[in-house]
Design a protein that fits this description.
Elements (H helix, E strand, L loop, with lengths): L3 H4 L4 E5 L1 H5 L3 H10 L2 E4 L5 H4 E3 L2 E2 L2 H13 L2 E4 L10 H4 L5 H18 L12 E8 L4 H4 L2 H6 L3 H12 L4 E6 L6 H16 L6 E4 L2 E3 L5 H13 L3 E10 L11 H19 L6 E6 L32 H10 L1
Helix pairs in contact: 7-10, 11-12, 13-14
Bound molecules: ligand G3I.
């Protein structure tokens, strides 16, 4: 049978952890290798995981992921250099001056991007093709966070500039949620990109996370909000796709009705993605393989009654898989 990566004209990704890749769960790696050709570290390449102290970095788990990718022909998308929700405790509690704080962040970005530029594929390209440079800047939490406070309102541009200085080849993304539904946030991102272009600040792509629901936002809304992002001419990554089906926790089993709605919605998302000009299609990355691996089983409450992904908890192919595959064809 055909696979997702064979049906698609663009990369199809999923998330991994170093533990999972080196563990004994062969079902996980066999589905990953069969269906996908791009990987993102769910947590192992975040600042909170790698920036262990002043000018001190632990790249070991990221390196293990990159080695796996290299050996098995995956592209790696780096996630994420700067995010207010993944800041190591020592840096959160930093007592130095703002200038010293900024030097730490700059040093981290430069060292990390330079380090992950080293692993090359056999045709000489970097295994790590891209980075989410800044994640979720247009939120109240980010605006109240230490990066904004200490590096200043222009911190996003600073981070992109430092990343580019460390590796001029790697693709640099701005990544955020609700870009599938929230017109005002889409406008903020599009305005930022226009400002970057005017000032010659480097940026290559926009990541729209796509944590969507089975009914909301509907596909017309997703399409309407996608259009200005595509209009920037940048690469577009559906970077964290999943689909909650039980946000109100009304269900205690995955009904046929909900399963079918999910299947149809996944199909229309694949069809919509294909309307993006091919040169701008960076790919679609899913935020998990099995339903029971999903972060949505722990958010906003812990529940076993959520089924957001393409594979069930026994690695069985769901109707959602079939729908998405049909949409790719
Ligand atoms: O590994 C520890 C475990 O040892 C400990 O017992 C447990 C107790 O809380 O925590 C475990 O770490 C958790 C980790 O996930 C691994 O499960 C962290 O607390 C938890 O904060 C972390 O959550 C991650 C979250 O980002 C925050 O970094 C999720 O796995 C991950 O799916 C989620 O991904 C984010 C994207 O990066 C950005 N966009 C939204 C997306 C979903 O929230």
């Amino acid at each position: 049978a055909i696979t997702l990566k064979a049906a698609a004209t663009f990369p199809i990704g999923n998330i991994v952890s170093a533990n999972r890749l080196s563990g004994s769960d062969n079902n996980f790696t066999s589905i990953l290798n069969k269906e996908f050709n791009s990987i993102t570290a769910e947590n192992d390449m975040k600042m909170g995981a790698m920036f262990t102290g002043q000018n001190t970095y632990d790249f070991s788990r990221g390196d293990a992921i990159v080695a796996y990718a290299k050996a098995n022909g995956f592209r790696v998308h780096g996630h994420a250099l700067v995010w207010h929700a993944s800041i190591p405790t020592w840096l959160k509690n930093f007592t130095g001056t703002d200038v010293e704080f900024e030097a730490q962040v700059k040093g981290y970005i430069k060292a990390t991007v330079a380090h992950f530029a080293l692993a090359k594929t056999t045709d000489g390209k970097s295994v790590v093709a891209s980075w989410d440079v800044v994640n979720e800047a247009f939120t109240n939490e980010a605006l109240a966070g230490p990066f904004y406070a200490k590096l200043g309102p222009d911190y996003v541009a600073k981070c992109f500039t430092w990343a580019k200085e460390a590796n001029s080849e790697v693709k640099l993304f701005y990544n955020d949620y609700n870009l599938d539904s929230q017109t005002s946030k889409v406008k903020s991102v599009v305005d930022m990109v226009a400002d970057f272009k005017k000032r010659a600040i480097p940026i290559d792509g926009i990541g729209s996370q796509m944590h969507v629901g089975y009914s909301y936002p509907d596909i017309a809304t997703i399409s309407t909000t996608l259009s200005p992002l595509v209009g920037t001419g940048l690469l577009i990554h559906f970077s964290e796709l999943d689909m909650s089906v039980n946000r109100d926790l009304a269900l205690t089993s995955f009904t046929a009705e909900r399963s079918n709605a999910q299947k149809e919605k996944y199909k229309s998302i694949a069809v919509l993605y294909k309307t993006i000009p091919s040169a701008q299609r960076f790919g679609i990355t899913f935020w998990g393989v099995r339903d029971n691996d999903s972060w949505l089983r722990g958010w906003p409450v812990v529940t076993e009654y959520e089924w957001p992904l393409l594979f069930d908890s026994n690695y069985g192919y769901k109707a959602a898989y079939t729908g998405f595959l049909e949409g790719l064809k």
